[in-house]
Amino acid sequence: MWSGLSVCHAGTPPGAFGCGYAALWGRLVTCEPIVNRFRRAPARQLLDKPKSWPTPRVRSLIWALLACAFSAHAATYYVAISGLGGEPDYDQRFKMWAEDIDGSIKKAGGNPITLIAPNRDQIRARLEELSRTAKPDDALVLMLIGHGSYDGVDYKFNIPGPDITAGELAAALDRIPATRQCVVVMTSSSGGAIAALRKEGRVVIASTKSGTEKNASMFARYWAEALRDPAADSDKNEAVTALEAFLFAQHKVAEYFDSQKRLATEHAVLEDTGKGEGERTPSVENGEGKLAGSFTVVRLGANAAAARDPAKRELLAKKEALEQAIDKLKYDKAALAAAEYKRQLTGLLLELARTQEALDKP
């Protein structure tokens, strides 16, 4: 399971049964009878009562969900690239943000590739390496920091020598077998890259809503902060997803412009359906955010430690697969009968509790 450059899965809620799970209930469940039942009953009692388990049919559905979640990613590869600043202040700023991201990923147990002002051939070579190393079950996170440009047709990431276009990046990413990908373009005019980069199974985040927002972007500063600040972990499960990091950085950018008493010159958007233009407010209603919400970028705290423990990796992977299955179930709730939703949710939560209990053992 731990192959390639780095591995990162979704996180672990703080505490197996008590107040740590209160955040989990709020995040996953809108069905009060199930929540109240779990809150009232002791964990051991819930786990020991055979009749608490769902029917065989529902259990088969649960394991089908788990199979999908397990196959979502076995390893996560990270590439962070800082581009050409054009002047010393920007060069230093972009390099600092890239190194900040690099440090957070390493602390979480990853082994990122970080490139400082590379040329086009160097970027292509690194991505080509991943096309030979990554497997279909793996995931990839590509983060671009710097300046960009858009001429109405092509987005270009500014680097020494010839710039690299969004189309060239998309072609290189398409050759990488990893089926779950997250591309974060944190540059001016980055919204112009969405049309070329969007693809089913790929989260695309751009720090500007279009190619016409041309001022230098601050989004990378706060994306880097999101990967090390527990405040970005909005559901308090000790993991930061792409959606959580996006929302955190977006909020911080807005605060920055407010504090400077300036009109915002960048408006970040997220696209993860493979066909949209990007949304500033991803939601069930607009269809954006489902993949990003289950795409963990980094672990925090105890989860990062567990990920480095060979004895706990398999349990952690199982637990994270359960969490992803619950997230998927919550998103698909409208398509299910209420009783079916309750049965599936109950089974998943019970299995999650059992797995968490095993993880918490010394």
Describe the structure.
This protein is 47% helix and 14% strand. The protein is α/β, with parallel strands linked by helices and 362 residues long. The protein has two domains: 19-70 and 317-360, no CATH class; 77-302, Rossmann fold (3-Layer(aba) Sandwich). The strands form three sheets. It has a six-stranded mixed β-sheet, sandwiched between helices. Strands 4-5-6 form a three-stranded antiparallel β-sheet. Strands 9-11 form a two-stranded antiparallel sheet.
Features:
362 residues; alpha/beta; Rossmann fold; three-stranded antiparallel β-sheet; 14 helices; 11 strands
Topology:
Layout: H1 19-28, H2 32-40, H3 43-48, H4 56-72, E1 76-82, H5 88-107, E2 113-116, H6 120-133, E3 139-146, E4 148-150, E5 155-157, E6 164-165, H7 166-174, E7 180-187, H8 194-197, E8 202-206, H9 219-226, E9 239-241, H10 242-259, E10 269-271, H11 290-294, E11 296-299, H12 301-307, H13 313-331, H14 338-360
Parallel strand pairs: 1-2, 1-3, 3-7, 7-8
Antiparallel strand pairs: 4-5, 5-6, 8-10, 9-11
Helix pairs in contact: 4-13, 4-14, 5-9, 9-10, 13-14
In a nutshell, what does this entry contain?
47% of the residues lie in helices and 14% in strands.
CATH topology of the largest domain: Rossmann fold
Helix content: 40-55%
Helix/strand/pairing class, anyone? alpha/beta
- C-alpha-based Rg, rounded: 21 Å
Order the strands across the largest sheet as they lie in space. Answer: 2-1-3-7-8-10
Domain module count? 2
Main sheet makeup: 6 strands, mixed
pLDDT below 50 for ≥5 consecutive residues: which ranges? 1-52, 69-73
Which strand-content bin applies to the residues?
5-15%
State mean pLDDT (0 to 100 scale). Answer: 83
Give the number of DSSP strands: 11
